[in-house]
């Protein structure tokens, strides 16, 4: 029974390791439809890490943050997707995605406590870049609504996974679980730094 939190963290690491850098970034890939929209966040390690960190961050904050922080990410991500699909130019998208992993991982590693509104704004800020990248690459010939629905649902599920992992660690392993969650956040932040340096 004591191994449950460690098993959950191992599952997260295995998912991240089996993913590749998402091809939904500006200038890469050709996708369309619900299935492709659903698969994209799950198949890209940068998206998996950022979205699971949002869930872990919300779990650490607790209370209304459990649903408001992930909801803010999903909402602003959808707006970013619409802006990208409309063809509006936004600078530093790849950098924003990389920094989202660094900042969210660091927030989890430090057990960063803040007002819910600040946490929502932080999640929403980075969500815009994730959404924009996918919207900008969505082919005009595909059903954008179906693709967007798939991407939103997958994103929400990744948030839910992060939430469940954070809550499980807190309830089953106590202080040890919190240490493991923070360690996972630190590892994610380091991975994000390597992505950022690759973009720069």
Structural summary, described in words:
The protein has 200 residues and is mainly alpha-helical. Helices cover 80% and strands 0% of the residues.
Overall pLDDT confidence: 84
Multimerization state: single chain
Q: What is the number of E strands?
A: 0
- Globular, elongated, flat, extended or rod-shaped: what is the shape? globular
Count of alpha/pi helices: 7
Approximately what portion of the residues adopt beta-strand conformation? Answer: under 5%
Percent range of helical residues: over 70%
| Separation of the first and last Cα atoms | 44 Å
Measured on Cα atoms, how large is the radius of gyration?
Answer: 16 Å
The computed structural class is: mainly alpha
Order of helices and strands: HHHHHHH
Q: Total domains, how many?
A: 1
Major sheet, described briefly? none
Low-confidence stretches: 5-31
Explain briefly what this protein structure is:
With 200 residues, the chain is mainly alpha-helical. It has 7 helices and no strands.
Main attributes of the structure:
200 residues, mainly alpha, 7 helices, globular
What is the strand and helix layout of this fold?
Layout: H1 4-18, H2 33-43, H3 45-61, H4 65-85, H5 93-110, H6 116-137, H7 144-199
């Amino acid at each position: 029974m004591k191994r449950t939190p460690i098993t959950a963290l191992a599952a997260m690491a295995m998912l991240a390791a089996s993913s590749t850098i998402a091809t939904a970034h500006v200038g890469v890939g050709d996708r369309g439809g619900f299935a492709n929209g659903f698969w994209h966040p799950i198949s890209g390690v940068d998206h998996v890490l950022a979205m699971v960190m949002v869930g872990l961050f919300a779990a650490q904050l607790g209370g209304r943050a459990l649903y408001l922080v992930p909801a803010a990410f999903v909402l602003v991500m959808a707006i970013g997707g619409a802006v990208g699909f409309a063809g509006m130019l936004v600078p530093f998208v790849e950098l924003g995605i990389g920094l989202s992993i660094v900042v969210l991982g660091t927030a989890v590693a430090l057990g960063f406590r803040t007002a819910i509104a600040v946490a929502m704004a932080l999640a929403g800020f980075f969500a815009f870049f994730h959404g924009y990248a996918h919207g900008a690459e969505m082919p005009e010939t595909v059903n954008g609504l179906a693709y967007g629905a798939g991407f939103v649902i997958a994103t929400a599920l990744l948030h839910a996974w992060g939430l469940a992992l954070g809550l499980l660690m807190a309830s089953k392993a106590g202080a040890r679980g919190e240490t493991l969650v923070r360690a996972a956040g630190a590892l994610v932040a380091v991975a994000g730094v390597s992505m950022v340096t690759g973009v720069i």
